[in-house]
């Protein structure tokens, strides 16, 4: 019975991984483009997890069980990278394969420690290898543009980054309309259409006038080519700029972020947030550029 359940769980996990990769490969269906390298690995890991469970069932080899935990760890690392796009589906694959591995035997003491170490190690390795690819896919990691107001907004800056994407040739966008699309693109891919429509409706009424509140954030600067928003918090202050310029005959959008720590709490807080920030903002820039290329945008 356990063998049948293990095979069933692993098969479902493989279907979830491969089916999800195929679905998100068709970006036009989702309006939420995901880097192709991420999707290819997602599908490959689904197959690898199924193979590991099958091998373990046939040979009862501890190495095959360890391979299953390694695949779970790699999928977990992939879930972190795809947090704003594919995480729920990848996590479902992790749970299914993990359950199949648990059914292979009781994990106690040293075996449990080894299995957890394998999961942690493979997750860390996969995160390190794929993170740069996913971060740069379809966009450029650049310096803050020279003409951007956000570069001079703080006397000192503790953290700064900028991501740039090209907009469709032959069409001119203003900073206000592009900022609306960038903000709407911050939503995770699995957000309901009703929630997306509510945000879009709220953004349509946003004028981004300096000093105006934007649901917990505030607008700080507005110009034909740039809008700067952000917030001052007890532990840190941050500003986000949406900047338009021309390059190689096409209009480009650059989303820049600057952060200033107010105390040690801000510095500690930003350690994990920095990883999430470097996932979410590239996702938003990539998605915004994709959506702005669509005929109805």
Give the helices and strands, then pairings.
Blueprint: H1 2-25, H2 27-30, H3 36-59, H4 62-81, H5 87-102, H6 109-136, E1 140-142, E2 159-166, H7 175-184, H8 193-204, E3 213-214, E4 217-223, E5 226-232, E6 236-247, E7 250-261, H9 264-292
Antiparallel strand pairs: 1-2, 2-7, 3-4, 4-5, 5-6, 6-7
Helix pairs in contact: 1-3, 1-5, 3-4, 3-5, 4-5, 4-6, 6-9, 7-8, 7-9
The total of beta strands comes to 7
Provide the residue-averaged pLDDT. 88
| Spatial arrangement of strands, main beta sheet | 1-2-7-6-5-4-3
CATH architecture of the largest domain: 2-Layer Sandwich
CATH class of the largest domain: Alpha Beta
Low-confidence stretches at least 5 residues in length (pLDDT < 50)? Answer: none
In whole angstroms, the N-to-C terminal distance is: 54 Å
Principal-axis shape: elongated
What structural class do helix, strand and pairing data support?
alpha+beta
What is the number of helices?
9
Query: Percent of residues in helical segments?
Result: 55-70%
Order of helices and strands: HHHHHHEEHHEEEEEH
């Amino acid at each position: 019975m356990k063998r049948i359940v293990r095979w069933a769980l692993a098969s479902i996990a493989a279907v979830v991984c491969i089916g999800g990769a195929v679905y998100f490969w068709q970006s036009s269906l989702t309006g939420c483009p995901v880097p192709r390298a991420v999707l290819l690995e997602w599908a490959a890991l689904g197959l690898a997890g199924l193979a590991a469970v099958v091998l373990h069932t046939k040979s009862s080899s501890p190495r095959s069980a360890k391979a299953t935990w390694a695949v779970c760890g790699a999928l977990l690392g992939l879930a972190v990278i795809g947090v704003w796009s594919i995480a729920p589906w990848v996590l479902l694959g992790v749970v299914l394969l993990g359950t199949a591995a648990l059914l292979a035997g009781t994990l106690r003491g040293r075996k449990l420690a080894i299995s957890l170490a394998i999961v942690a190690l493979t997750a860390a390795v996969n995160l390190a290898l794929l993170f740069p690819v996913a971060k740069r896919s379809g966009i450029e990691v650049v310096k803050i543009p020279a003409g951007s107001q956000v570069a001079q907004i703080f006397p000192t800056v503790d953290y700064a980054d900028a991501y740039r994407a090209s907009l469709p040739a032959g069409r001119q966008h203003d900073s206000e309309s592009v900022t609306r699309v960038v903000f709407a693109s911050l939503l995770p891919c699995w957000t309901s259409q009703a929630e997306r429509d509510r945000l879009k409706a709220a953004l349509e009424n946003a004028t981004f006038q300096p000093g105006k509140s934007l649901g917990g954030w505030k607008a700080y600067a507005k110009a034909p080519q740039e809008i700067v928003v952000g917030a001052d918090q007890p532990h840190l202050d941050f500003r986000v700029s949406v900047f338009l310029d021309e390059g190689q005959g096409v209009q480009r959008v650059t989303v820049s972020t600057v952060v200033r720590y107010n105390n040690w709490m801000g510095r500690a807080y930003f350690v994990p947030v920095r990883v999430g920030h470097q996932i979410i903002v590239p996702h938003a820039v990539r998605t915004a550029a994709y959506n702005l290329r669509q005929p109805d945008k």
